[in-house]
Amino acid sequence: MKIQDLHSAFLTHQSVSTDTRKIKENDIFFALKGDNFNGNIYAQKALDSGASIAIIDEEKYFIDDRTILVEDVLTTLQQLANYHRKYSKAQVISLTGSNGKTTTKELINAVLCKTYKTIATKGNLNNHIGVPLTLLTIQPDTEIAIVEMGANHLKEIEFLCKIAEPDFGYITNFGKAHLEGFGGVEGVIKGKSELYEYLIKNNKSIFLNADDPIQLDKLKNYTKKYGFSSVNSKYYNIEMTEAQPFVNIQVENTNIKTNLIGSYNFHNCCAAITIAKYFNVELSEIKTALENYTPDNNRSQIINTKGLYVILDAYNANPSSMKVAIENFNSLNNLHKTMILGDMFELGESAEEEHQNIVELTKNMNFDQVFFVGENFYKTQTDAIKLRNFDELKVFIKNNTIKANSAILIKGSRGMALERVLDCL
């Protein structure tokens, strides 16, 4: 079947699925494969559950004319998404970066949806499967699609750009994330900059954090850029007036009081404001959107529980995001402060050094207690409390009382799932 014919069928159904547990009536089911699963096996189940079509790539699972045999299911999904993206009238904003992608994406969507019909990446579905699935949620009346792009190796962002064909792009930052896959910080910069390369090659527009010297240098000769800065008068001026604990912003004589903790969220807000201004969203609407936005999904969430003030930032962690989270937490005044820090993953040969760097960072800071959790932190040299895994942490907390009225920072990589600590406090 040609992609345009499949797209015609898609327009009739307007919904795809890759999981038989979430099939809706008339979905098109894509039988994806992974290292430990083969979606072809579930084609019959998908049809029985209400799917109208099942896309397969193994002939032995062909059932009837409701099954479509293709050479490769994943490639077909990506081709369909690209075809739909070009078919739609929506403008596409893509963003990537080492830290803050998902929060920034949600903030951009929050401000733009005040004026436009928007869709945005759900959660962090930002890879070679998630980007196509996001593009396929573009509706006939969608005006702007905000597409998050993640990567852990070179050429991945380049590939995602070929699928999404963005009209605009923004890079949050370049940090120490996925060092194992990128081969170091220079590899991270090169990999994330593939978004710049696509946009420049195709004469598209770039949004720029002009406070970031790396971004400023890479785009110094490019004219189709729209930037913000708290210090550089050549760019749209936005200032942070306070971050104790929440980020307050001053822009065009307007004060915006957010529910986002940590100065590291300042530039995320700035990006949303700048992009919204580019699209002519009224500043009053921007202010309302940002002041009403409340973080969730374990990202800088503020939780008050049993007399404890918890900053739950346990969705993910890398050396860059861990450092700024710790420094911000240290800056909070008049509180008993406890940190529960979990291992950072995908650091490769840098793991030992980067975990020790975090330990050294905390040594002269004003914390009542620090818990380091995980095999990597357990190997570090420190007088602080080290625990090999979550089970040991659970036992320790059960047998030891954390001071009442304490503030607690919980941060670690996704695989550590440190949000489970909430049940122990």
Automatic annotation (TrEMBL):
<dbReference type="InterPro" id="IPR005863">
    <property type="entry name" value="UDP-N-AcMur_synth"/>
</dbReference>
<keyword id="KW-0132">Cell division</keyword>
<comment type="pathway">
    <text>Cell wall biogenesis; peptidoglycan biosynthesis.</text>
</comment>
<keyword id="KW-0131">Cell cycle</keyword>
<dbReference type="InterPro" id="IPR000713">
    <property type="entry name" value="Mur_ligase_N"/>
</dbReference>
<dbReference type="InterPro" id="IPR051046">
    <property type="entry name" value="MurCDEF_CellWall_CoF430Synth"/>
</dbReference>
<dbReference type="GO" id="GO:0008360">
    <property type="term" value="P:regulation of cell shape"/>
</dbReference>
<dbReference type="GO" id="GO:0009252">
    <property type="term" value="P:peptidoglycan biosynthetic process"/>
</dbReference>
<dbReference type="InterPro" id="IPR036615">
    <property type="entry name" value="Mur_ligase_C_dom_sf"/>
</dbReference>
<protein>
    <recommendedName>
        <fullName>UDP-N-acetylmuramoyl-tripeptide--D-alanyl-D-alanine ligase</fullName>
        <ecNumber>6.3.2.10</ecNumber>
    </recommendedName>
</protein>
<keyword id="KW-0963">Cytoplasm</keyword>
<dbReference type="InterPro" id="IPR035911">
    <property type="entry name" value="MurE/MurF_N"/>
</dbReference>
<dbReference type="GO" id="GO:0051301">
    <property type="term" value="P:cell division"/>
</dbReference>
<dbReference type="InterPro" id="IPR004101">
    <property type="entry name" value="Mur_ligase_C"/>
</dbReference>
<dbReference type="GO" id="GO:0047480">
    <property type="term" value="F:UDP-N-acetylmuramoyl-tripeptide-D-alanyl-D-alanine ligase activity"/>
</dbReference>
<keyword id="KW-0961">Cell wall biogenesis/degradation</keyword>
<keyword id="KW-0067">ATP-binding</keyword>
<dbReference type="GO" id="GO:0005737">
    <property type="term" value="C:cytoplasm"/>
</dbReference>
<dbReference type="GO" id="GO:0071555">
    <property type="term" value="P:cell wall organization"/>
</dbReference>
<comment type="similarity">
    <text>Belongs to the MurCDEF family. MurF subfamily.</text>
</comment>
<dbReference type="GO" id="GO:0005524">
    <property type="term" value="F:ATP binding"/>
</dbReference>
<dbReference type="GO" id="GO:0008766">
    <property type="term" value="F:UDP-N-acetylmuramoylalanyl-D-glutamyl-2,6-diaminopimelate-D-alanyl-D-alanine ligase activity"/>
</dbReference>
<keyword id="KW-0573">Peptidoglycan synthesis</keyword>
<feature type="binding site">
    <location>
        <begin position="97"/>
        <end position="103"/>
    </location>
    <ligand>
        <name>ATP</name>
    </ligand>
</feature>
<feature type="domain" description="Mur ligase C-terminal">
    <location>
        <begin position="299"/>
        <end position="414"/>
    </location>
</feature>
<dbReference type="Pfam" id="PF01225">
    <property type="entry name" value="Mur_ligase"/>
</dbReference>
<dbReference type="InterPro" id="IPR036565">
    <property type="entry name" value="Mur-like_cat_sf"/>
</dbReference>
<dbReference type="Pfam" id="PF08245">
    <property type="entry name" value="Mur_ligase_M"/>
</dbReference>
<keyword id="KW-0436">Ligase</keyword>
<comment type="function">
    <text>Involved in cell wall formation. Catalyzes the final step in the synthesis of UDP-N-acetylmuramoyl-pentapeptide, the precursor of murein.</text>
</comment>
<dbReference type="Pfam" id="PF02875">
    <property type="entry name" value="Mur_ligase_C"/>
</dbReference>
<keyword id="KW-0133">Cell shape</keyword>
<feature type="domain" description="Mur ligase central">
    <location>
        <begin position="96"/>
        <end position="275"/>
    </location>
</feature>
<feature type="domain" description="Mur ligase N-terminal catalytic">
    <location>
        <begin position="15"/>
        <end position="82"/>
    </location>
</feature>
<keyword id="KW-0547">Nucleotide-binding</keyword>
<dbReference type="InterPro" id="IPR013221">
    <property type="entry name" value="Mur_ligase_cen"/>
</dbReference>
